[in-house]
# Entry
Amino acid sequence: MFKKSFYSFLIAVLLVSVTSVTSFAQSSSFSGISKMQLKNASPIMEDGQVRGYYIFYRVEKKDRKTVSYKIQFLNENLEKTGSKSITGTPYLSLIEASYNGTNVMLKFLDTRERKYTFRQYDRAGEQVSRKSKEYDRKDIIASTAYSAGNTGNGALFPVNGKGFLNISGKKFKKIGYEINFYPNSKEVRGWTYKSDPEEKATRYAEILGANEDIVLISIASFEGISMKALTNYVVGIDVKTGKQVFEKPLSKDDLNVIVSNGFIDEDAKEFTIFGTYFGESGDAYKKNGEGLYSVSFDFEGNLLKEKINLWEKDFGKLLPVSKKGKMADLGYFYMHDVFKTADGRIFAFGEQYRKAASGAGIAMNILAGGGRSGVSVVKIVVEDMLFFEFTPGFELKKVEFFDKSKSNFSLPEGYGGVKAFKLGQIVDAYGGFDYFYKTENKEENSVSVIYRDWNREERQSEVHSVTYAGGDFATDMMPIETEAKRYRLMRGKEGHIIIMEYFKKEKKLNVRMEKFNF
# Structure
């Protein structure tokens, strides 16, 4: 059982320290760790900025059914703000934490009891709500197929000052979705918005954004894994009631599009969506795509503008690109994100990738003697970072290349014949790209994209940044120096990165902050 006294103490300290600007700690160390999964640590975000961190690890096993854990909270400067031991089953994980400017939400997963637990606390450290959500194996399978690795088994999304959204895949007659809203106050009722259990097509939903009044989601409806008869919608949901405000087609001509990214412009009261265009007919996943689709809506769901940039016709003006989206001698492009700068420019960025024969995969298949090796004879080579600039009307304007070392991603067995577009999604789902995260500095009107690289000459890992500010790009690099066999890079506060080093033999975890030059 989890102890309320722990949370009343811990969260109160965390939320007070979140607003502090007088702290200057740059590292912390933790000992007595019997087992640690580095994924059980993460930043706590608010409005795109780091406001603190949580670290969750096992201390000792009390008996066959009970384990003692410890959760540590740090502020944005890595100062320890509180900790306490808690108990649970050996199958417990703290998988997400989110902060919405008023409250904090902790999301736990217990795979033995097959349930998620959501615990929410206010600034005074008082528990606002505790909700449990059971799942079965069909839901886990649905979430995996539904999300393609982007939302996992569900993802927390903060609604500033109002509450939290959690989205997950759900196995109905077909694979669908479920969105749960957990309000900040006990006086406000939560709600659930989900696809029709009797729906005969797969329904995939993605949260585009939310403000105090409306939640914006995109929905793709299709048949089978080939995405036959693909139809896209944009849906608005009332934050207070959970009722649908509008549902509009993504495009006026019902184009064959797979949505990939988007952003909200609160000042203009509109939102923009980017996706891959697959032509007017056909099965989306049997193609590589014919171009890039862009569209904007207002908050009432009215279509404002849309544009299709074809690979050969439009991108080919700036790059030698084939109709299949392949850049001559450069492979394919996987878009990670899009953003709008303070000076009104729109950028999409991502990485090049291409197929290649895998020597290791071929050797393992030979050794398997005709059996299953589990590894494909084809690999993905990930190459440079690209930025595409668009006009406010989504006309392609400029392309920027940023060199980085090639990295290889070994495909699972059986994926060698999959189309390049879908392969990009698979590589992203498995974490095979080098992109790390994007951060914005509103005061400086700058946007930075952070990615990992490997310096072959120095034989060391590096972290690189590409920063856009005032119409120009600037780059920076930081070598990663560590003696730990297991380490993880984590997003830091503006201009910084966190390095977590786990020393299993010493039962110790070191967490330190390094500063970029920008």
User: Anything to note?
Assistant: The two ends are 46 Å apart (CA to CA). DSSP finds four helices and 33 strands in the chain. Helices lie at 4-18, 137-147, 359-367, 420-429. Residues 1-125 form one domain.
